[in-house]
Amino acid sequence: MKFGAIYMSMWLWLVPALIIFFIISNRLRDNILKKFSDPNVIAEIMGTFSPGRRKLKNRIIVAAIFLLIIALMRPEWGFTWQEAKRQGIEIIIALDTSKSMLAEDVLPNRLARSKLAIKDLVKKIKGDRIGLIAFSGQAFLQCPLTIDYNGFLLSLDDVDISSIPVGGTSIASAIYKAIKSFEDKKGDRILIVITDGEDLEGGLEKAIQDAKKDNVRIYCVGIGSGDGELIPIANDKGKRLFMKDLQGNVVKTRLNEEVLKKLAIETGGMYVHASGAEFGLDLIYEEKLSKLEKQEFKSRMEKKYHERFQIPLAIAIFLLFLEPFISERKKENGV
């Protein structure tokens, strides 16, 4: 057995709370009666009252509430196999993890802000496959194309500037890794590159041509400022410093929009400049990606569990209907 809405179990605390309430209320009622009159008089007045029947009514209410909560949790057991067909597009996000992404011209820094924007994008997509590439001097497939969005987000959380041991920035390596990672050979293949555009390794012209041949549309999100920003780092003692070159000069990282615009235009994609408030991924998805023709992915057999919430719900309703008809008065035989 499994539950389709296990989060509704948070209401189970009502059951022990209700039990405690009935225990305390019964004791308070007895104490008040003892203060009101002599025990012998109370016994005569309450001669037809049945404490056992009151407890029975209380138990029925507790059981009904428990079963209602179980019904809200949507219990499922038993299943049948059915063919599951999915439609969508394939989206791979290539995220720059070079040290320049630590610059704080976009708060809290370029990399952290990018990850937050990707998480917001995942909330919008439905049925699309999404994958993740982390790149700096080389590219690594952090998460293959999947519809398991929770798994994708876990992979995203693991990304930081130490994800790729090779320094530098190679946008071309990210493009080639994406081309190899796409599965759908017919539909649009979407690559979203999030970077400051400082391509230090070259080879971008050939990568653009290969992307066009493989029908890969590249959408670029440029993050950072053109004026340049210092790159904060921490030394072995945790002290905050700024990155310097071999000559001891402080390094400034600048957004190179020209490279990203060229990349997007030549592959039929789109370029947006990310800011703190409007990152740009929402714009890309709403204006472009959501309007692309959905492709049918390879179907597979999935388990379809049968909903059984009707059973506890029906029992709970019956108990709530029954409870008012149970009298607290004793029968003639004293029960």
Task: Outline the structure in words.
This protein has helices at 14-36, 39-45, 51-72, 110-122, 149-157, 171-181, 204-213, 257-266, 281-287, 310-322, and strands at residues 2-3, 75-84, 87-88, 90-96, 129-135, 139-146, 189-195, 216-223, 229-230, 232-234, 240-242, 252-253, 270-274, 295-296, 300-307. The two termini are 40 Å apart. The strands form five sheets. The protein has a six-stranded mixed β-sheet with strand order 6-5-4-7-8-13, sandwiched between helices. It has a three-stranded antiparallel β-sheet with strand order 1-2-15. The model has no long low-confidence stretch (mean pLDDT 85). The chain contains ten helices and 15 strands. It is elongated, with a radius of gyration of 32 Å. The protein is of the alpha/beta class. The protein has two domains: 2-81 and 304-325, no CATH class; 87-296, von Willebrand factor, type A domain (Rossmann fold).
